[in-house]
Prior knowledge:
Helix content is about 40%, strand content about 20%. Strands 3-2-1-4 form a 4-stranded antiparallel beta sheet, with helices on one face. By secondary structure, it is of the alpha+beta class. The termini are far apart. The chain is globular and about 45 Å long. It has a single domain (about 5-155), classed as Sufe protein. Chain: A (Alpha-Beta Complex), CATH 3.90.1010.10. This is Fe-S cluster assembly sulfur transfer protein SufU. InterPro entries: NIF_FeS_clus_asmbl_NifU_N.
Amino acid sequence: MALSKLDNLYRQVILDHSAHPHHHGHLQKATNEIELRNPTCGDVLQLEIALTDNKISDIAFSGDGCTISQASASMMTDAVIGKTPAEAEQMVQAFSTMVIGDQPDQDLSILGDASILKGVAQFPARIKCATLAWKALNNALTGEDGKGMAQLLTSHED
């Protein structure tokens, strides 16, 4: 497949995730919730997680944001269901290093569709958009407050 056709396919996947996001909405019963904001562009993301038996049994997000932040959140929610918090944290780290271009040869298979956001590294202004949901996931699981950018709403065990 020619590079331009591949780029077009990736764009279409991103646009589809943004227009028809997976796991968009709210959970009936969340164990962890957080809201993060990207002050650079105004993206706002609320993330709700349900942990059962030390695994992410359900996840949902809501909020307003650009195409990249919404698509990244959709892809992230697909990728982390069924994972332990430790596995999810490894995925957050892999995603973060991918979008800043630190390890160009790293195995991205654990990220699922989110690996197509690798091209964000070419657009530094979009990195915060792409990482917003992933940072929210990490902060919700670890109880961190996002260094002044997040407010942990709840974090408790059933």
